[in-house]
Each structure stands twice: as C-alpha cells, then as structure tokens.
Amino acid sequence: MTADPATSAAETATPPAPARREPPGGRDAWLAWGIGVTVYVLAVVHRTSLGVAGVDAAARFGINASALSTFSILQVLVYAGMQIPVGLLVDRHGPRRILSAGLVLLTAGQLGFALATSFTPALLARGGLGCGDAMTFVSVLRIGSRWFPIFRNPFIAQLTGLVGTVGNLVSTLVLSQVLHSAGWTATFGTTALLGFGVLALVVLVLRETPDSAPREPLFARRSARVPDAPVPAPGFSLRDQIHASWREPGTRLGMWVHFTTAFPASSFLLLWGMPFLMSGQHLSRALSGALLSLVIVAGMGFAVLFGQLMSRRPRWRTPTVFAVVLTTGAAWAVVLAWPQPGHVPMWLLVALAVVMGSNGPASLIGLDYARPVNPPERVGTASGIVNMGGFVAAVLALFLIGLVLDLNTPGGGTNYTANGFRAAFAMLYLPMAMGIFQILRLRKRALARERELTATVPVPRAAG
Question: Which secondary-structure segment (H or E) carries 183?
Fold first, then answer.
C-alpha cells in the first residue's frame, strides 16, 4: 500500500516548538534578580564616583574643565558603544558570563583609577571601567525577563533602576566624605576590591534562568547554548540580529525616549552637579551633596510610580515622557534665567533636583516600547540599542558643558563662574530638542506596529 505523500510529509516534518512557558516569578526569581542587581549597584558606585571627586580630580591631575569632561565622556562613550555588542553577547551567551566579565573590568578599571597619578593612565582606567559598566544593566534586564511574567517586566525594569540608585547614594553620601578623610587611593581602591566578593556571588550562586542548574560551569563548551536561547536559523548572523531589532520602529522610538529623558540628570550627577553647586552657587560640599542625593531619592519615588503606572496603564507612556521632558526643560529655564545667577534660591534648587529625579525612571520607559515588538531572542540586543540612547546624549551634553565652561572661565582654569555655568547648562536644550523631534517623528509608526503585533500574538496586559 502506497503511503499518502501528504501524510508522510506531515509525519516526517519537524514538530513545532513547544510554547514558551510563562516565567514563574517567586522567591528564586527574586534571588536571581537580586544577585544581578547587586552587580549593577556596584557598577553605579564606580560610574558616579567621579561625580563627587571632580574638583579633587582636577587638582590631582592638573587639568581644566574640558580635560575633566574627558573622563566622563570617554567612560560614557565606551558604555554607549558597548550596548549593542553587550546585548548580542547576553542573547548568545547568557547574563551570568557577561556579568562576570563586567565585574573583572570594573574592578580593574577602578583599581587603576585609584593608583593613577597622571591624566593618561587615569583616562584609560575610566575607559576600562565604562566597558565593565556597560555589561551590567542589560544583563540584569535579561535575568528579569527570563524569571518574571511578561506583564511584570516594566515594573522590574523600573525597580532595577531604583535599586541601582543606591550606588548613587553611596557615592554622594559616603565616598564624598571618605575621600576627604582617607584620601584618593584608599577610597577608590577600597571600592574596587568590593568587586571580588560580588564576583564570587555571581559565579557560585546565580541562576540566570529557571532551568539553569546552580553552580553550573561558568565557561562551558561553546556548543552548550544558553538554556532560553533558540538555535539560530541557517544563515543567521549577528548583523541580522541588529538589523532586525533596529528595523522595529518601537526599538528606535525607545532609543530616542532614552536619549531625550536621561541625559540632564546623568550629566549633572556624573560630573557637573557638584562643581555647579559649589563654585556656581557657593554652597558647601555637604549641602551640595545633599542636593545630589535629593535627585537620587526623588528618582526612587518616580521609579515606583512609573513602574506601577506603565504596568497598568501602558497608554500613558508617551504623555509621561513628554511631561518629564517639558518639566525638566522648564525647571532649568527658570534656574538659568534667574536674575542673580550665582544666588539661585534654595527652594528653586530643591525643585530642580526633584524634577531631575524623574529623568532616569522616565528613560526606562524607552524599554517598554522596544520589548513588545521584539521576540525573546532579541530582547538583549533591543535593550542594548535603547540603553545606548541616553548615554550618547550624556556624552554630547558633557562635551558641550565642558567646552562652553572653558570658554567662559578666565585663564582656562577651574575658577568657574555663575555666568559660565549659565551659558554651559543652556547647552542641555540642544540634545533635548533633537530627541523631541525624533519622538514625534516615530511615535505613530511605532505604536501602529505594536498594535499589529500584539493583535497577532496576544500578550498578557499588552501595551497599547
């Protein structure tokens, strides 16, 4: 009896892949995420440590404002440039390996910065630190997406950013004081050594997916793939992965949202906030540190608010983004237009700090545009593209502020004036205008594409 060709083809065809199980959440999920976010907190400590040591660094290395900006510019530029490669690596090899490599680079970079006594070695150390820093946030997002149900992802992303701000608080409240009691080398060297303990936690305890075995070999054979990563189709390339992610208008919109919202607070906290408050507003170091801390504490509150709001009311994403951008621009306008630029009242500086606290949490809304339109195997790559945006804007802002400040500082030294800071911080409006234009250009196309995909493949509590 001759077999029916259609039946034979059906019997020999490769069975369809089983449906992806909904991540379980629960105690193990919080443990895995907690280990990952510990790495991120340490990375933020290293990243922002220069923000409270800008004046000390200028004196230690004998440099002006432009050279001082170079430290943060290189660090952030390396961070931004590494986002897409890191996203690809996380998708291909899993977050555990990438977090481990990041910790090694972070520790080496901070230790090199602690021991450096001249500009060039210190600059190279900050570049290595930026490379290690780049490997943390996307890895933690990947852990969260594999362990928690999909509708919780916006909240987990915001919570990651919120907990990461603890690193900012450590820098502003602890390092700024220790630096003047223990000295440069002891302060930065001690923070570097913390990396060894966190690395042991990642290697010995972290499970990057619910199906991962605890304490599995960190460097397994190359053929052993990440448990949740699908086998690439024939002809697949990393270029295809990047192109597919970038082709989605939601990915590009998310990048420009991150670009437009994150950089005012980033440039303030990373480098220029403390000099502006101390030299431009003649505040004490303690009071300046308190205002920087207020930016961070306010950010924690906004992170909780935005996380809950985006999980339950995804249609409020764009209005929230525009509210944050316009409010930030208005707050800076009032500060810069104040009749006595060197004596801005404290209530206005407090208001500015609170408003800038919304910048970081608002930037994470960019991930909520990219996530629904990219399949799980592209989440790391898409997150890397989005996360690159705010740091590119920060590089631009840091460069412009340093350049204009030098042009308005007599003798090119570090005797910064209030009028110099007024001209320098006016440069914030250039990246802001560029980002607003791109958001308006991409918004309708991105949301139409998202509705198309969520209508075809229903997702719990899908964004609208």
Answer: none
